[in-house]
Amino acid sequence: MNRLNGKLSGGRIRPRSFFEPPRAEDLPTVSLQMKGRKFDPGMVIGTARRCVFGLPSVIVCSPLRDGKPFPTTFWLTCPHLVKLCGALESEGAVAELERRRMERPDLWTEYNLFHARLRLLLVQPAAARFLRKYRRGVWDTLRRGGAGGIDYLSRARGGAKCLHLQAASWLALGFHPAGEFLHKALVPLHCAAPAASGCVRRC
């Protein structure tokens, strides 16, 4: 808990400290990982987390798509983790996240506010000036959107939403209000073989 408070309270946010630009091989890998899901490779601006095999597990997405807010900053791409999160959700993981959120709503609000600040910093300066002046509604949507676009100012819409986005956020940033739960639940964190999981093509 102290680690989370320290992360949220001090210093200037530096977006690039949370991710690296995509490598040449990352986009083909991510496209393979995302097979069967709606995905635009042009949205990818970086890789936030890699697995033990060096493949992308979490990507960073542009906050704008065709001039409209895109809610997902950190997108979980690892097929193994996507499947694991789905199984955990069917066992009540989202309800457990909600229970923990209700215990410390202040920490979750801070965490979502941190996400909103990070998303705003990912907007190019010229685009940010334009949005503030001419598209205030779009800017306000970006400003109010926490992890996965969660409206952290709304009690009705400020829930955990889904395990996939919370897992992606935790893996990307290295901290989370429910970090202890995520650490214990997301086991094993890595697959045994990328080809079997769908990250690389079989020879």
Q: How are the secondary structure elements laid out?
A:
Layout: H1 2-9, H2 26-33, E1 44-50, E2 56-61, E3 64-65, E4 68-69, E5 74-76, H3 79-90, H4 93-103, H5 105-122, H6 125-134, H7 136-144, H8 163-173, H9 179-185, H10 194-197
Antiparallel strand pairs: 1-2, 2-5, 3-4
Features:
single chain; 203 residues; mainly alpha; 3-stranded antiparallel beta sheet; two-stranded antiparallel sheet; 10 helices; 10% strand; globular
Instruction: Give the number of DSSP strands.
Output: 5
**What is the terminal separation in angstroms?**
45 Å
Percentage of residues in strands: 5-15%
Radius of gyration: 17 Å
Query: What's the average pLDDT?
Result: 88
Largest sheet properties: 3 strands, antiparallel
Strand order of the largest sheet: 1-2-5
Q: So what's the overall shape?
A: globular
Helical proportion, percent range? 40-55%
Structural class: mainly alpha
- Low-confidence segments, given as residue ranges, are none
Give the helix tally: 10
3D structure, described in words:
The chain is mainly alpha-helical and 203 residues long. It has a domain at 2-102 and 162-197. Helices cover 48% and strands 10% of the residues. It has ten helices and five strands; from the N terminus they run H-H-E-E-E-E-E-H-H-H-H-H-H-H-H. The chain has helices at 2-9, 26-33, 79-90, 93-103, 105-122, 125-134, 136-144, 163-173, 179-185, 194-197; strands at 44-50, 56-61, 64-65, 68-69, 74-76. The strands form two sheets. It has a three-stranded antiparallel β-sheet, with helices on both faces. A hairpin with a 2-residue loop joins strand 3 (64-65) and strand 4. Helix 5 crosses helix 7 and helix 6 (125-134) packs across helix 7. This is DUF501 family protein. It comes from Aminivibrio pyruvatiphilus. Residues 1-22 are annotated as: Disordered. Pfam families: DUF501.
